[in-house]
């Protein structure tokens, strides 16, 4: 016989257990929902904090803080002169794709008008990322590219790193017309009859993907050298692009035999090239146009501070900082800049000026050096201004008259494993006549101190090498230490 009270009690137990399970399930759902809300709110808050923090130090009136950009100059003859900034790798607050800026800015380069609280920047155009990806009328954003200008101030950019997922680089050539600021992609071919390559091997002529290469312009041609390939190998080739005929010509392949015989510089990246209209060539005994190379590196253990000249008419290299100068009284300097890469260089008069750069373990230089192209000697320049820009790298330097203009870059630190300290967006001008630094637009980036009232460091003749593996010029090197210490990363 069925025990009715027992059955009812059992049903009640099942009911209570079912209700408990429902309560626990409902509680789990509610807690999970609340957790998701809190997490979402936190992430949103952090994002808003990042945006608001960015707006606190940079707004629509200023370009994003960046490094490895392209820089040009306009109105350098008639005036007023303006700097043009394009792309580069940014930290935030930029219309960017994979950390790369897709923007273009003009800056009023008037050294007689220091900062007065108003922006001297003007943004030329901006597209959203989706529209940009659909466009073939503008170059793909990139960093570690090169930019040179012709006599009409048209800007040419070539190759660079677009930070693609597959790690590939690009080898495209673009022209930005002066005045209209319109982009046009060029399609150069290989000049088989003039090339060092075989006519049947023209495909190699266009395999020019690279980053951290160097370039200079002279008489209708863009000269491009070295850099890093997508396979991480270093390049040592010297090419010339005829911008009128749109033809690439391989002038010198920098073979291992030439390097071993010290007839060509070793392969490298992060170096600079500048054009010298008239330079004495020891091998020919004549003056000719030369493309002058300075510094760069192979890897973290091998940096350079050598100076080489490439003579396009002879298609040969000649080392300058150990070669005798044409004047009888000249001598090779007993001091030279410390090896470095990702510095900047420019020619004013008969001198090549170099500023900034990076040496291993996060040391960014704030020094200024001048290489006398006639005497072939280095001189460390001591600025006369009380305030100087902080050491930095991945920068560009543009000569306008006797002034040198510098934008942004990245800070550095001496200490291994230092955390990021951020990029810069300040503008400085250095007068080669008065040796004075002028801050034209202060940096609006977080966690930086881009200027400091302090006496600039001038290396002593008796500074000793620090024991690292470096390539010397003749005589002792100036030790790193001119830069004010600030933490940074190297891209």
TrEMBL record:
The chain crosses the membrane at residues 25-46. InterPro entries: Kelch-typ_b-propeller (IPR015915). Keywords: Membrane, Transmembrane, Transmembrane helix. Residues 442-491 are annotated as: Disordered. The keyword Transmembrane helix applies. Residues 480-491 have a biased composition (Gly residues). The keyword Transmembrane helix applies. This is Galactose oxidase. It comes from Diacronema lutheri.
């Amino acid at each position: 016989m069925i025990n009715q009270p027992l059955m009812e009690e059992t049903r009640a137990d099942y009911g209570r257990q079912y209700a408990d399970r429902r309560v626990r399930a409902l509680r789990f759902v509610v807690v999970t929902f609340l957790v998701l809300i809190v997490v979402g709110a936190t992430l949103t808050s952090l994002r808003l904090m990042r945006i608001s923090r960015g707006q606190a130090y940079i707004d629509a009136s200023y370009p994003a803080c960046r490094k490895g950009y392209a820089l040009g100059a306009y109105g350098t003859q008639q005036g007023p002169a303006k700097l043009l900034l394009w792309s580069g790798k940014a930290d935030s607050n930029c219309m960017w794709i994979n950390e790369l800026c897709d923007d273009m800015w003009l800056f009023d380069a008037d050294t007689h008008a220091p900062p007065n609280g108003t922006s001297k920047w003007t943004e030329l155009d901006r597209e959203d990322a989706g529209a940009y990806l659909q466009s073939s009328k503008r170059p793909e954003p990139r960093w570690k590219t090169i930019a040179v200008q012709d006599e009409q101030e048209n800007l040419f950019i070539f190759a660079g790193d677009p930070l693609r997922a597959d790690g590939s680089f690009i080898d495209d050539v673009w022209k930005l017309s002066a005045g209209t600021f319109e982009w046009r992609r060029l399609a150069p071919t290989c000049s088989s009859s003039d090339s060092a390559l075989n006519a049947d091997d023209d495909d190699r002529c266009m395999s020019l993907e690279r980053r951290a290469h160097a370039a200079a312009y002279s008489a209708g041609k863009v000269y491009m050298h070295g850099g890093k390939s997508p396979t991480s190998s270093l390049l040592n080739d010297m090419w010339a692009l005829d911008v009128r005929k749109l033809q690439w010509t391989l002038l010198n392949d920098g073979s291992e035999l030439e390097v071993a015989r010290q007839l060509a510089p070793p392969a490298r990246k992060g170096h600079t090239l500048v054009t010298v209209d008239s330079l004495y060539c020891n091998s020919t005994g004549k003056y000719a146009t030369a493309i002058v190379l300075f510094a760069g590196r192979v890897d973290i253990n091998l940096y350079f501070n050598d100076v080489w000249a490439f003579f396009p008419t002879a298609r040969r290299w000649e080392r300058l900082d150990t070669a005798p100068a044409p004047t009888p009284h000249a001598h090779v300097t007993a001091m030279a800049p410390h090896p470095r890469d990702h510095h900047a260089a420019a020619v004013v008069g008969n001198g090549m000026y170099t500023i900034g750069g990076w040496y291993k373990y996060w040391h960014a230089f704030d020094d200024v050096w001048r290489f006398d192209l006639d005497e072939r000697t280095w001189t460390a320049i001591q600025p006369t201004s009380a305030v100087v820009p902080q050491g930095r790298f991945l920068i560009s330097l543009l000569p306008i008259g006797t002034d040198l203009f510098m934008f942004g870059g990245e800070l550095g630190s001496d200490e291994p494993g230092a955390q990021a300290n951020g990029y810069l967006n300040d503008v400085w001008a250095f007068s080669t006549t008065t040796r004075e630094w002028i801050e034209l637009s202060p940096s609006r980036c977080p966690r930086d101190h881009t200027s400091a009232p302090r006496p600039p460091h001038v290396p002593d003749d008796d500074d000793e090498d620090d024991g690292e593996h470096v390539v010397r010029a003749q005589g002792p090197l100036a030790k790193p230490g001119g830069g004010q210490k600030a933490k940074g990363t190297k891209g």
